[in-house]
Amino acid sequence: MPEISILMPCYNAAETLPEALASIAAQTFGDYEVLALDDGSTDATGEILTAAARQDERIRHESWPHRGLLDTLNAGLALARGEFVARMDADDAMHPERLAIQRTWFERYPETDILASRIEALGAVRAGFAIYIEWMNGLRTETELLRERFVESPLAHPSAMIRRVAYARLGGYAEHGWPEDYDLWLRAAEAGLRFAKTPETLLAWRDHPVRATRTDSRYSVENFLRAKAHYLRRGPLAGRPAILWGAGMMGRRLSKHLLREGADLRAFVDVDMKKIGRTRRGLPILAPEALGEWLGGDKPPVVLTAVAARGARALIRARLNGMGLVEGRDWWAVG
Hints:
- This protein is α/β, with parallel strands linked by helices.
- The chain folds into 2 domains: 4-219, Alpha-Beta Complex (Spore Coat Polysaccharide Biosynthesis Protein SpsA, Chain A), CATH 3.90.550.10; 237-333, NAD(P)-binding Rossmann-like Domain (Rossmann fold).
- It contains 12 helices and 14 strands.
- It has helices at 17-25, 45-55, 69-79, 98-108, 127-137, 142-147, 164-170, 180-190, 212-215, 221-234, 249-260, 312-322, and strands at residues 4-10, 32-39, 59-64, 84-87, 93-94, 114-122, 161-163, 195-206, 242-245, 265-269, 279-280, 283-286, 302-305, 331-333.
- The strands form 2 sheets. An 8-stranded mixed sheet has the order 3-2-1-4-7-6-8-5, sandwiched between helices.
- Helix 12 links the parallel strand 13 (302-305) and strand 14.
C-alpha cells in the first residue's frame, strides 16, 4: 500500500494538467498513488490521464459522468489506500519536496491531523488573490489558524495533507451549499482535530477566471457568511450572546444569517457617527466607547468584528486587546 494518496479531481483541465502531473512526477518522495479522477470532462483530460497512467503505474485513472467536485472528492476518498491523503488540483503545481517535507512533519509531530503549507501564485495574479495569499501565508501557527478561521478559509485546500483517519472521523466532505473545503476546516476545528502549516512554500496555486471559486455559487460571499454563522452559533456563540462590531454592509449581511441560526445578537458597534444611536435590525448601534458597558454579567457577549475596510481589523484588534479581551475567547474576527 502506498503511504500517500494524492487526491486530484480533474474537470476539463487539459490545458494545465500536464504541468500538474509533471510536478507530481518530480517528487523526491515516491511512495504514493495518484487518484486522478476525471469528472466527466469534455476536453482532452481523459486522454492525458490515460497516457499518464500507461507510463506510471502509480497513477490510478478513474472516470465517470460529471457529478461535481464534492462527490468526486468523496469518491476519491473511498478509493484512497494511503495513510495520508494529499490534496492536489489539476491546475496547480507541487514543489518537488512537497510530499517529503509534509511526510517528515507527520513523523516529527504525530499529533498533527491536517497539515498545509505556505503557497505562491502561479500565472497571472489578481489583486484580491494576492492579498488573500499574503494573509493566508501570514498565518503560521495552529493558534493563528484557528483564531482567524472565521475571517476566511485559512488553508489552501490543494496544499493540505490529511490523515485518512481524520477524514474518516469527519465523514469526508459534506454538502451544505457552501464551500466544501471551508466547511471541512470548520468541522475539523469543532471536532478538536489538530492543524499545522509548514514554513516552506510547497504549492503554486493558479488563479484564473474559470476556477470553481469564481464560477460556483457555493463560493459566493453570501454562502461564506452562511457557513460562518452556522459554525459561530455552534461554537463561540453556544450559550452566549453576541455583539457585532460593524454596522455596514458586511455586518448587516452576517447579522441576517446569525439571527437565522438563532444567535442572541444584542447590539452593533460602529465608528460612523451617522450610524451611532440608530438601530440595525431593531438593535442599537453603539459607539466603541460604550462597548465596555455591555460586556458584564456571568455570560458576557462575545464580540464579533465584521469590518471589510483594509487595515480596520488591526485597529479593532488593538482596541479590543487593549480592553483586556482575549481574541479567540472574548472576541473573534469574522470578516
